Amino acid sequence: MASKSKQVMKKAILTENPVLRQILGICSALAVTNLMMNSLIMGLALTFVTGLSSFFISAARKYTPKHIRMIVQTMIIAVLVIVVDVLLRAFYPTMSKALGPYVGLIITNCIIMGRAEAFAMNNPPVLAFLDGVASGIGYTLVLLAIAFVRELLGFGSLFGFPVLGASWTNWTLMIMPPGAFFMLGILIWITNNKKEGGQA
Amino acid sequence: MKKRNSLIYSVLFMIALTAFTTLILAVLDQSTRPRVEIQQQMETHQAILFSAGIESTEENVESLYTERMKPVAGEENVYEYYEGSELKGHVIPFEGSLLWGSATGYLGIAEDGKSLLGMDIVSNAETPGLGGRITEDWFRKQFQSLALKEEPPYLIYRPAAGGNVDAITGATQTSESLRIILNKTLTEYFEKKGGN
Amino acid sequence: MSPLVIFFASIFTNNMILANFLGMCSFLAISSQIRTSVNLGQAVTFVLAVTSAANWLVYHYILVPAGLEVYRFIVFIIVIAAIVQLSEMIIERYFDSLYYALGIFLPLITVNCAILGVALFMIIREYGFLQSIAFGVGSGIGWMMAIAMLAGIRVRIEKAPVPEGLKGAGIAVIATGLMALAFIGFSGIINIS
């Protein structure tokens, strides 16, 4: 059991990383990656939703009628996203404002539905929960990697702390949308090369 | 197995799920709503105070606000600013389009009409780190006790002749749009005041 | 703000894909042929026009009076899914040729983030009814334009010597970045609020 959990985690974080390997769910990812802090919170919110939705979907899988399972899954995911939204608005209003509609868009994030269909429907709740959490962490890592470069070059800071000094000229391009597209492209390139190198 | 796919079971299942989740959300919403409202109110009050040149913390914002600010009857979002019993100026809202989207905020004007008390941006959609720097302290604080020009345009960016404010380097369009909005707001305010 | 301004702004300066990153799932999957991209774009525009109106009405006449704004995510999703189903049925029955062009794409659209994104943006930006429709239609056309252009670029790229690791999604994303860069040139012409 323990080794199986570990294997599931490792597979979801590294080898089957949701964003990189499946290029799913990048919609809501990119818009918040101009700051490390936004990306971290977004990643945590997503991990929370993927983990718990996998858990509940798996727990209810034996009682869910097959032909309405999609709407049941959507419902569970949407409720968890609302929970995140309400909590953010109550306890972290500035972040809630910064993330804007992108919290709500977690609902349509393809990763969550993907994990629910591919894993949670066929596995026990605890394992499904781990799989969901691991997918969320893998997603968070990608967001943070993109945000690291974008914030460092675009603001000269990390998590809001200036690190590059006053003489650094900010790359405005990095903060604007094209910067996010370029970084994602480069990240896909790097991982594709890594994978080939590993296989050879 | 057969039962699970029957229509009645499906409908009952959905009703049960909906009822359960609705209940959870209703409880969560009710329990956090006061907190959200207090926070929103605090944010607005801090912006209004900042526009009158007063910096407040989460602790003293409400007491400062009730002590110094008085909403003007019949006008939405217009406030009188008092120090003791002396009327020092007015805080008025402004709104308009910047480079990427609309912005809203408050502008504080001294009672003699010769200077500003301050300015604060409540919402904007500018690029962070570029036009978005209008919300940074150094930019907003320039407007505190700022001597206005005697005639419109009341605000001019340096290094133009007679300039009294600094624009944001690299965000010329955002700065310029903001200046136009502020000048327009001021002109309207003085016209109305003169007309009374 | 005039609906016309919102319409053009949502095509050029606030493009759903290029400025807001919305609707990328199907964007990358479909954009390898110009013809299918345009068809999908038309379907998205149609659905956006109808759902933005429906969601606006539901939000302002049902959710707000009842104080149930907190349920808006679920309600929007249900409204979108229902409308997509309904329009699929109507199109299949009465507009045969249109069904062959758009029909197969309609189910795909329910999960397109751009649809929910438009609904959420119009609430956050406090649009009126006409503004919301203009925003919905404009966003759809902007989306169609971006996906058709990317399809055009991808057809050419297929014949170009792209590094192995960048082939497929990688180069498509970077091409989208270049398009986004070009669209920044439109900034300041029109504003959205």
Structure description:
The complex is a heterotrimer of chains A (200), B (196) and C (193). Chain A is an all-alpha fold. Chain A contains 10 helices and 2 strands, in the order H-H-H-H-H-H-H-H-E-E-H-H. Chain A has a two-stranded antiparallel ribbon. In chain A, helix 8 crosses helix 10. The model of chain A has no long low-confidence stretch (mean pLDDT 83). Chain B is α+β, with helices and mostly antiparallel strands and 196 residues long. Chain B has 4 helices and 8 strands. Chain B has helices at residues 7-51, 61-68, 137-141, 172-195; strands spanning 69-71, 79-83, 86-97, 102-110, 115-123, 146-147, 157-158, 165-166. In chain B, the strands form 2 sheets. A 6-stranded antiparallel sheet of chain B has the order 1-2-3-4-5-6. The mean pLDDT of chain B is 85. With 193 residues, chain C is mainly alpha-helical. Chain C has one domain (3-184). The model of chain C has no long low-confidence stretch (mean pLDDT 85). At the A-C interface, helix 3, helix 5 and helix 10 of A face helix 2, helix 4, helix 7 and helix 9 of C.
Summarize the structure.
The complex is a heterotrimer of chains A (200), B (196) and C (193). With 200 residues, chain A is mostly helical. Chain A is built from ten helices and two strands; from the N terminus they run ααααααααββαα.
Portion in helices of chain C: over 70%
Q: How would you spell out the order of helices and strands of chain C?
A: HHHHHHHHH
Whole-angstrom Rg of chain B: 24 Å
Order of helices and strands of chain B: HHEEEEEHEEEH
Instruction: Give a count of the beta strands of chain C, DSSP E runs of length 2 or more.
Output: 0
Give the low-pLDDT segments of chain B: none
Largest interface (CB within 8 Å) is between: A-C, 44 and 38 residues
How many domains of chain C? The number is 1
The secondary structure category of chain C is: mainly alpha
How much β-strand is present in the residues of chain C? under 5%
Count, helices of chain C: 9
What's the gyration radius of chain C in Å?
17 Å
How would you name the oligomeric state of the polypeptide chains in this document? heterotrimer
Question: What distance lies between the first and last C-alpha atoms of chain B, to the nearest angstrom?
Answer: 80 Å
User: Can you tell me the overall shape of chain B?
Assistant: elongated
Mean pLDDT of chain B: 85
Q: Helical amount among residues of chain B, as a percent range? A: 40-55%
Number of strands of chain B: 8
- CA-based shape of chain C: globular
